[in-house]
Amino acid sequence: MEQQFELIAKTFQGLEEVLATELTELGADNISIGRRMVSFTGDQEMMYRANFCLRTAIRVLKPIKHFKAKDADEVYAAVKEINWSDYLDLSNTFSVDSVIFSQEFRHSKFVAYKVKDAIVDYFRETTGKRPNIGITNPDIRLNIHIADTDCTLSLDSSGESLHLRGYRTGSVEAPINEVLAAGLIKLSGWNFDCDLIDPFCGSGTILIEAALMARNIYPGVFRRAFGFEKWKDFNRDLLDRIYNDDSQERPFSHHIYGYDINNPALEVAARNVKSAGVADCISLKQQDFKKFTQPQEKAVIITNPPYGERITAPDLMGLYRAIGERLKHQFVGNEAWIICSREELFENIGLKPSFRIPLINGSLDCEFRKYQIFDGKMQDFREKGGIVKTDEERKRMAEKRRFKADRDFKKRFDDPDSRDDEDEDDIIPGYMRRLHREFERNHSARSRREGDEAGDRHDRHERRERRHTPAERRPSGSRRDNGHKGSGKRRDRRGN
Questions:
Q1: 388 domain-assigned
Q2: Which of 5, 381, 384, 488 is most buried per CB count within 10 Å?
Q3: Are strands 355-361 and 256-260 parallel, antiparallel or unpaired?
Q4: CATH code, domain carrying 270
Q5: How far apart are CA 145 and CA 151, in angstroms?
Q6: Over the stretch 18-54, which tens digit does the pLDDT of each residue have?
Q7: Residue 11 CB: number of other CB atoms within 10 A?
Q8: Over the stretch 271-315, which tens digit does the pLDDT of each residue have?
Q9: What DSSP string describes 443-460?
């Protein structure tokens, strides 16, 4: 039996229990839920599978040291004590991300720079040479997490954030994050026994995540690379075996429908759907939700309509009134799940939600609400066997805090993975921006001497040159030529 070690899977606030359930199904041990993370134990195969299979994880970290520190100098000393030759070669580039929840440490980038300095000084003192820092595409990513004085330094096994699935060929304004989309589907309890509809589908993220989930196609199949592929102990045969195994995939007997009033968005969605290889179970149509009619088959709506933050509609209040009217009169016998950041918009729907879940969408506090649509009185609906809240939903409501009607939906700055593509200047207080800029200026000359920028430009160019069709997602020769079961079958079956 291979040695087990500690692992941490990060996620968005509100999706911790969903992620824990995924890890349980994957066979992880010692699962413990924290704030925007779930810790667990597993061996190398579990770490690979977590990256490959998890739908609601942003990244998977492997802690290499826990320590206490009251200031940046103590962080530097603790990091420098690590035998970095076990993890890095002089030929490797590396970067450090930092997440800080502490009164002792006010500047996250300063902590990251101290970690970098400690690693560089370790190699300079032991070898006389120094490794290079990589900004955009480093070989090795590190993460330093500080809560008060408790510090955890980890290797980032994912590399790029896991929400970057690899199937997206285009986007629209304010697309929903893939991890959040998968989380919404799982939170809804949809178990693939009916149709699914997204009437504000945009570039098709919810549709695609639903189709992949229904077919049980793991999101890692679209990834070109993971962070652990640059580690010293990387096991290519193990990753090939995981990648080429499609035995868990299954048929889907229902259908998924996407509608949007914006035709260019639908064109992008069509390309993304084709890239993901799920065009046979997704239908797209240009349609105003005000013209939505009762579906012929039982269905669930899961949608992320505009709420006037990053994108808006000419008459936003009227749009939400139309949502309520259409649901009440044209979606009887079904349930709808809607995510939104503004209480007044929810109020305009005019329907009473049966369940509420607080979530974070990018930098916005949101709620994900369930609407059970039925004719007549609720008592009659229940007497006929209708279920307003499932047992699982009742359990969640008992555990979660109630949503406040006058809640202030503030933007937040926690860590890079929770911000999507927001401009930092929009969410960092002014004095913090000035500190960031001053610190960047002080270190810019040093970064240029290290040759980071030239190396990164070369790396980006090389990656663009290598980026081909989805059929060539895994360029490794072992996956093409070594006779593994999936080396040709998967590409042919996807139709890409």
A1: yes
A2: 381
A3: unpaired
A4: 3.40.50.150
A5: 6
A6: 999 999 999 999 999 998 999 999 999 999 999 999 9
A7: 27
A8: 999 999 999 999 999 999 999 999 999 999 999 999 876 555 668
A9: HHHHHHHTTHHHHHHHHH
